[in-house]
Design brief:
binds 5'-O-[(S)-butoxy(hydroxy)phosphoryl]adenosine; single chain; 2 domains; 31% helix; GMP Synthetase, Chain A, domain 3; alpha/beta; 22% strand; Rossmann fold; 7-stranded mixed β-sheet; 30 strands
């Protein structure tokens, strides 16, 4: 039994949005199911500025996905920046669009819609001068500076396709992404700044680009003024190219289904894949969900403290909020700098009303106690959001009681890079919440649970979560590899989108995400493939074989557990562990590391040589008694060695 939290009256009061009651939600949901095409056509015409209004809703379906992507608003034409910028100039020209808080507390920049429009036009001019045309790929490898959003929008203005690479990724990871999309330009900065520490973005870019012939220009923003290497003829300073450029530029018309961006994400096998989102459907989805889920109002100060390098930053720092004419906070620092009161200091100073973060941050802050929260006046807060991983009820309740002072509602938003925006989540003013549940599907989303025999579960039950019908915000394909898209998402259950997540539905129809059921790890809300870790580990000379799984971690949600078989002649030891983590840092990035290593004589394999990952998982989770049948193993003795040598934090 879990407690139900009704929406506090002060949260519902005065909401200008359409779904303020459960009846309102149910009516919208039913309408979206009755006539999806009509429902979303009406929404998109109200929300977006179209150059040519669409008359077509949905074309295509999941059964024919191998023949080509589904299409939404297929005959429409638009440029997303007109919805995000131009049309706000009349009513909101002087409204703050981006409220930037730098690494040092109180280092604030207020960028109005008018400023932002001008800067985006100037940056678009600069990119055009550097050769960027519609359809070209631009990699953005930056920290949390306003210019990162300007760069994204400048690409969109030209119809160019941006691909933001999170600033924590290594040179190897950046190079892979540059190569995969054959980027023409990289936009970066001299250094990033986070928690008082510089991040050598330009230097890493230089390493990544050695020998990459597709990249013609590197545009460099000066953030810290550090000395950086310079390649004459290739490198261009942002302030030289952008500041003097003309301050208006006609937005390039795009078809609704033209690509807007590529974002690389990890799967259960192989290299990260370039998830592709398109213009019309994506912006409709992010605008709709941002407005309704957070119940955003004209005077809100809305803060999503994610990084633009992830989908959360794309959808809920940049595109959704700007399309809705909101004031969106961009935060350069970390929750711990200079101390664990940083978020709350910022909430108080900036008057933040809607605050959106990840469970891992909530747990890390809760571990510091209530005092850093209580010493601040957080009465401006109305809606608190979480995203990225399941939130445990303890952390949920701390967020609700201590941060929200029992006066706010919590929206636990389940979604994915591939879904473009929220899928299962409370609607802030309407949905009663339960700690740990993402609650109910957004209108337009048809979830389906399948049991271990692939049968559809009706009513309460637990299984694998699929989505049974296209929605406007869904990723259309994997860049350059539609077959991979079909095989990853639509082959396990033909005709359905498989999310990779397990999920339970309770008697009230509420959904409880139980975590990934594939070989994807979710560490501090960062998604990483076990296969990427394993590939990196076996590239260390001393390592013969590696098996990587997740285990429950009190702060990170999941930690990384690696079973290592050494090459003959090597002895286990700390030095080898250090080497292995260095290799992972080099190949993936600073955010990736193994928490626990266990050296084993061999991996548990079937007679056909397949690693039985279930065994690795159970031991790492501290449940060796739940191993199940091990009789099909080639060498059952390794199991005992694995159990005997199990590590824990
Ligand atoms: C995976 C997607 C969505 C933006 C950030 C992560 C997990 C995400 C929740 C939630 C339980 C969640 C899922 C999902 N996840 N939100 N509210 N409750 N799990 O995007 O890197 O594409 O990861 O994050 O496992 O599949 P992503």
């Amino acid at each position: 039994m879990s407690e139900v939290y009704d929406v506090p009256a002060r949260v519902r009061e005065g909401s200008p949005n359409p779904m303020t009651t459960m009846d309102g939600y149910r009516a919208a949901y039913a309408a979206s199911m009755d006539d999806p095409g009509g429902f979303w056509l009406r929404e998109t015409k109200q929300r977006l500025q179209w150059m040519r209004e669409p008359t077509q809703g949905l074309e295509g379906n999941f059964h024919e996905i191998a023949d080509g992507p589904v299409r939404w608003f297929g005959d429409g034409e638009l440029n997303v920046t007109e919805s995000c910028l131009d049309r706000h100039l009349l009513d909101r020209g002087d409204k703050v669009a981006i409220l930037w808080e730098g690494d040092e507390p109180g280092d604030v920049r207020r960028i109005t819609y008018r400023d932002l429009h001008r800067e985006v036009c100037q940056a678009a001019h600069a990119l055009r001068e550097l050769g960027v045309k519609k359809g070209e790929r631009v990699i953005i490898y930056m920290g949390m500076v306003p210019e990162a959003a300007v760069a994204m929008l400048a690409c969109a203005r030209l119809g160019a396709i941006h691909s933001v690479v999170f600033g924590g990724f290594s040179a190897d990871a950046l190079r892979d992404r540059v190569r995969d999309c054959r980027a023409q330009i990289v936009i970066t900065q001299d250094e990033g700044l986070r928690g008082g520490r510089p991040i050598p973005l330009k230097e890493t870019t230089d390493h990544a680009l050695v020998g990459e012939d597709s990249v013609e220009k590197v545009l460099v923003l000066k953030r810290t003024g550090a000395d950086v290497g310079w390649v004459e003829g290739r490198d261009v300073w942002w302030h030289d190219a952008v500041a003097s450029a003309p301050d208006s530029l006609d937005a390039v018309p795009c078809a609704a289904e033209d690509p807007l961006f590529i974002l690389y994400t990890s799967g259960s096998t192989g290299r990260p894949k370039g998830v592709l989102h398109t213009c019309g459907g994506y912006l409709t989805w992010t605008s709709y969900t941002h407005q309704n889920v957070f119940d955003v109002r004209e005077d809100d100060v809305y803060a999503c403290v994610a990084d633009v390098g992830w989908i959360t930053g794309h959808s809920y720092i940049v595109y959704g909020p700007l399309c809705n004419g909101a004031t969106t906070v961009m935060f350069e620092s970390t929750p711990m700098y200079p101390d664990p009161g940083r978020y709350w200091d910022m909430v108080e100073r900036l008057g933040i009303t809607v605050f959106y973060t990840a469970p891992t941050a909530i747990r890390a802050l809760a571990a510091h106690g209530d005092e850093p929260v209580r010493r601040h006046d957080l009465s401006s807060l109305r809606v608190l959001g979480t995203v990225g991983e399941p939130i445990n009820p303890d952390a949920w309740i701390w967020y609700h009681e201590v941060v929200g002072n029992g006066r706010c509602t919590i929206v636990d938003t389940w979604w994915q890079t591939e879904t473009g925006g929220h899928m299962i989540t409370p609607i802030a003013p309407a949905t009663p919440t339960k700690p740990g549940s993402a609650t109910l599907p957004v209108p337009g989303v048809l979830p389906l649970l399948l049991d271990e025999k692939d049968r559809i579960i009706r009513g309460p039950g637990q299984g694998r979560l699929c989505i049974d019908m296209p929605w406007p915000g869904m990723a259309r394909t994997v860049w350059g590899d539609h077959e991979r898209y079909v095989s990853v998402y639509f082959s396990l259950f033909p005709g359905r989108y498989f999310t990779g997540d397990g999920c339970r539905r309770d008697k009230d129809g509420y959904y409880w995400i139980t975590g990934r059921v594939d070989d994807v790890l979710n560490v501090s809300g960062h998604r990483m493939g076990t296969a990427e870790f394993e590939a990196s580990l076996v590239s260390v000379e001393a390592v013969a074989e590696a098996g990587v799984v997740g285990f429950p971690h009190p702060i990170k949600g999941q930690g990384v557990y690696a079973y290592i078989v050494l090459q003959p002649g090597y002895e286990p030891g700390d030095d080898i562990e250090t080497l292995m983590n260095q290799q992972i840092r080099k190949e993936i990035g600073a955010h990736a590391r193994v928490d626990l290593f266990q050296f084993v004589p061999g991996l548990p394999k079937t007679r056909s040589g397949k690693v039985m990952r279930r065994i690795l998982r159970k031991v790492a989770e501290g449940q060796p008694e739940a191993l199940g049948d091990t009789s099909t193993l080639a060498d059952p003795s390794v199991v005992q060695a694995i159990i005997d040598g199990a590590k824990s934090l």
